[in-house]
Amino acid sequence: MPIATLDAAAKKGVAAVQQYSLLSARALANLFRRPFYGADIITQADLIGIGSLPIVILTGFFTGGVLALQSASTLAEFGAATITGQLVSLSMIKELGPVLTSLMVSGRNASGMASELGSMMVTEQIDAMRALGTDPLKKLVMPRIVATITMLFFLTIIADGVGTLGGAFVAVVMLGQDASQYFHTAYQTLHAADVTQGLVKPLFFGFIISTIGCYYGMSTTGGTQGVGRSTTQAVVVSSVLIIAVDFVISRFMIGIFGR
Length: 259
Fold this sequence. Notes:
By secondary structure, the chain is mainly alpha-helical. The protein contains 8 helices and no strands. It has helices at residues 3-29, 38-77, 84-122, 125-131, 136-174, 179-188, 192-218, 223-257. Helix 1 (3-29) packs across helix 5, helix 5 crosses helix 6 and helix 5 (136-174) crosses helix 7. The longest helix is centred in the N-terminal third of the chain and has 40 residues, at 38-77. It starts with a helix and ends with a helix.
């Protein structure tokens, strides 16, 4: 690859990071400026949170079930099948619940934000909004960020609970384990550090999903093909960032809490 091509790609990447950072910073700063678009936040919360509820419940339930199914047979070889509940609850709450929920919400809503805002860009609706004196970042981006962060937090809690129940269904109904023992080990082995780690992650993941979706939507060019391209990029980039940031947060939390 020619040096000039590499140089152009590097400059394009740096410019994209700069534009994304500026968009995110300006959108967050708009939280403290009037007017406050509360109705828009509620509308987005309904679309993002309630709309994602079925897929989050299904994902959480079957993930917990698979965890119990796969781990119980391995644990039984060491005479430790009784800690199936502990393994399922810790895995769901610390790692799989936040990450899988965020990936599901990313696939559904980062693409939706990018396509919706991208369509508004190519049809010049956002330019018309600016001409009328309305800040698009305040009206369009800020409500999506607030709604995504808030709803992803509660969706993660739901996924954790449903995943634990899914594991219980498999362990008790299919594998014949004792229900009381499953739930006692699932609950009693949890520490504040485990719950904290699982509930901090969705705050960062929600910010990533909303800002990446809005960034690619607001930077869309090239008509309908550009909208499709932005939608694809938003899902791919947000998913990769979620996994990368998950590693960083996990390492940081383990350094703080030691577990």
